[in-house]
User: Which sequence fits this backbone?
């Protein structure tokens, strides 16, 4: 299994949790972004810097991901593409996207986008809190325990 992270907007505490898990379990972690990232020195962790542009990071991840891999992203359309490729998607707040819930998440995302475009709803997601970090760490641990042969 390879872990890919949509790292452009990935909060540093989530990046740190991922890096520690990769080193602890000897898993490959690739952080994909259109900016330079600071990462710990490890043979298990690397970065890929892609060009700027709409969905360039997403396209790079979709091209690389294989069945059974894990992608960390808050981008619901990317998560849907990952699931189509028989891989797994986990958001930075600890929600595992699945075949059963991704269509509902896409519909909600599209509705909120329309409401924002119409000025009815403004703003984005709330800031990441400690409980979100804990939920992510717990869900990541559950996922890795289930899917990684030790």
Assistant:
């Amino acid at each position: 299994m390879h872990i890919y992270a949509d790292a452009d907007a990935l909060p540093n505490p989530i990046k740190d949790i991922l890096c520690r898990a990769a080193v602890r379990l000897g898993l490959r972690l690739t952080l994909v972004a259109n900016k330079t990232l600071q990462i710990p020195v490890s043979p298990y962790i690397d970065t890929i810097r892609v060009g700027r542009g709409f969905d360039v990071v997403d396209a790079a991840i979709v091209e690389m991901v294989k069945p059974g891999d894990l992608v960390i992203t808050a981008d619901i359309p990317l998560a849907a593409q990952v699931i189509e490729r028989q891989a797994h998607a986990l958001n930075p707040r600890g929600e595992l996207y699945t075949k059963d819930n991704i269509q509902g998440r896409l519909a909600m995302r599209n509705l909120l986008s329309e409401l924002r475009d119409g000025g009815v709803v403004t703003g984005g997601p709330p800031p990441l809190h400690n409980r979100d970090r804990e939920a992510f760490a717990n869900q990541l641990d559950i996922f890795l325990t289930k899917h990684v042969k030790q």
Remarks:
- The first strand starts at residue 2 and ends at 6.
- The chain is about 45% helix and 15% strand.
- The chain has a mean pLDDT of 90.
